[in-house]
Design a protein that fits this description.
The chain is of the alpha+beta class. The protein has helices spanning 22-29, 98-105, 115-127, 134-141, 152-162, 169-172, 174-183, 205-214, 228-232, 268-278, 280-287, 292-295, 300-305, 313-319, 337-340, 416-422, 429-442, 453-472; strands at 2-6, 9-13, 48-56, 62-70, 83-85, 190-193, 198-201, 219-221, 240-243, 253-255, 259-263, 323-328, 331-336, 341-343, 346-347, 354-361, 367-374, 385-394, 397-406, 413-414. It has a five-stranded mixed beta sheet. Strands 10-11-16-12-13 form a five-stranded antiparallel beta sheet. Helix 2 (98-105) packs antiparallel against helix 5 (152-162) and helix 3 runs parallel beside helix 5 (152-162). Residues 192-365 form the FAD-binding PCMH-type domain. GO terms for molecular function: 2 iron, 2 sulfur cluster binding; FAD binding; iron ion binding; xanthine dehydrogenase activity. Keywords: FAD, Flavoprotein, Iron, Metal-binding, Oxidoreductase. It comes from Pseudomonas fluorescens.
């Protein structure tokens, strides 16, 4: 059984199809049709809901953290121990919520289909803001598409709803909600079981290892932003899933003198602060990683584990010399991330083995790390080419070189020939040009609807040139902003 709060209503579910999304649960099982399906792939934001989780801050104070999610990509099993808020829950005692009023007063709605999703993104923005901030508003709304208004009135609604905000019914009920969430906090393995399909929800790494050993055919579910597409887009059935999002050990970020250890189930939005502090370009790229709804849900381990050749984080992590810790039963092994990827969607992971955490070396003064993403849109788009460069230059000579690319091969891959040209050479334009030529030996990219093979190779070469120019003229601020 799993338990969660639907606003303030306790829901206990057991014999429920584990392949059921939160979107369809709301619309078909509880009669809340305000949440809309626009794309069923996490691209439009019409299905946005907010999930509240119990958190404890550094001072030991308990509070509820509210985050926007795409309900079309969220399986119901991931709600275990949490609070789900949909657009119907905002109106209180006959009065619209302040974010709804702002949308009305700023004329932020026309056809209205996308409006519930915008309202829920604004609600999450308001809950996580102390004052109007245009950058945060753009970030919060980048995953919501509107075909009517042109966004200006919606951004005006964001400003109004965050300006002098007043306590609402959720603030008034916070103590009560915290008590109710504590009362349903999972204490044992949860399960949804419809007879022919099941999803298991472990709480510890040990339980996860045992379950995965017992069900090696199971699909591991973390954020689900990729896995859920098999159900919503390809109409496949997932007979057995194991949800890892309640394994607290795999959601930790620990900083040591020489490394950062990030649990594989850590949401990308939670990774931001730690990675940005060490590598600002990594943080900039995370801002362009899909939408805030996806970053609130998708995990760093999932972005690695799905072995996509166009995943945004693997090229950066490879260039930084990151490692993955793999767990199988009571056995663990550490693997360089570049060795984890073998071929298209083929990895070094063994049966019943899973990524427990990612180990990222801390930055040093000698490193010159930069990352770039080329895509057709600045926000919420997949890379045509993603490049990460990490050189060590001492006394004008390149003493270490790590360069990795996504979108250039069947896997995220280092540019071995390019690195060999650079090592031991002076850091000048002539050497960079020879290194650019060597990229043609490293990669034979494919043409697809995102870019031609010629465009990809030329882009990769130009990004290396861009990297060199920026290091020579550090006042130029154009990193991670390339797009077609």
């Amino acid at each position: 059984m799993i338990q969660f709060l639907l606003n303030q209503e306790l829901r206990s579910e057991h014999a429920l199809d584990p392949n059921l999304t939160v979107l369809n649960y709301l619309r078909e099982h509880v009669g809340k049709s305000g949440t809309k399906e626009g794309c069923a792939s996490g691209d439009c934001g019409a299905c946005t809901v907010v999930v509240g989780e119990l958190q404890t801050d550094d001072a030991g104070r308990e509070h509820i953290r509210y985050r926007s999610l795409n309900s079309c990509l969220t399986f119901v099993s991931s709600l275990h121990g949490k609070q789900l808020i949909s657009v119907e829950d905002l109106k209180h005692q006959g009065e619209l919520h302040s974010v709804q009023k702002a949308m009305v007063e700023c004329h932020g709605s026309q056809c209205g289909f996308c409006t519930p999703g915008f309202v829920m993104s604004l609600f999450a923005l308001q809950k996580n803001s102390d004052a109007p901030d245009p950058a945060k508003a753009h970030e919060a709304l980048a995953g919501n598409l509107c075909r009517c208004t042109g966004y200006r009135p919606i951004l005006a609604a964001a400003e109004q709803s965050c300006c002098g905000k007043q306590p609402d019914q959720f603030d008034a009920r916070e103590a009560e909600t915290i008590a109710r969430l504590k009362a349903i906090a999972p204490t044992d393995i949860g399960e949804l079981n419809s007879g022919d399909k099941r999803c298991l929800v472990p709480l510890t790494v040990a339980d996860l290892a045992d379950l995965y050993d017992a069900y090696p055919q199971a699909r591991l579910l973390a954020g689900g932003t990729d896995l859920a597409l098999e159900v919503t887009q390809f109409h496949r059935t997932l007979p057995v899933m194991i949800y890892v999002g309640n394994v607290a050990e795999m959601k930790r970020i620990e900083t040591f003198d020489d490394r950062i250890e990030i649990g594989a189930a850590t949401a990308l939005s939670d990774c931001y602060e730690a990675l940005t502090a060490e590598y600002p370009d990594f943080g900039e790229l995370l801002h362009r990683f899909a939408s805030l709804q996806i970053r609130n849900q998708g995990t760093l381990g999932g972005n690695i584990g799905n072995a996509s050749p166009i995943g945004d984080s693997p090229p950066l992590l490879i260039a930084l010399g990151a490692q993955v810790v793999l767990c199988k039963g009571e056995t663990r092994r550490t693997l360089n991330l570049e060795d984890y990827f073998i071929d298209y969607k083929v990895t070094a992971r063994q049966e019943s083995e899973f990524i427990e955490k990612i180990v990222v070396p801390r930055a040093t003064a000698e490193q010159r790390f930069r990352a770039y993403k080329v895509s057709k849109r600045l926000d919420d788009d997949i890379s045509a080419v993603c490049a990460a460069f990490n050189l060590r230059v001492e006394n004008g000579v390149i003493t270490d070189a790590r360069m990795a690319f996504g979108g250039m091969a069947a896997i995220p891959k280092r540019a071995a020939h390019c690195e060999a040209v650079l090592l031991g050479q002076p850091f000048n334009s002539a050497v960079i040009e020879r290194a650019c030529a060597a990229l043609a030996e490293d990669f034979t990219p494919l043409s697809d609807f995102r870019a031609s093979k010629e465009y990809r190779l030329l882009s990769a070469q130009n990004l290396l040139r861009k990297y060199f120019i920026e290091l020579q003229t550090p006042h130029i601020e154009t990193r991670v902003t390339a797009y077609v």
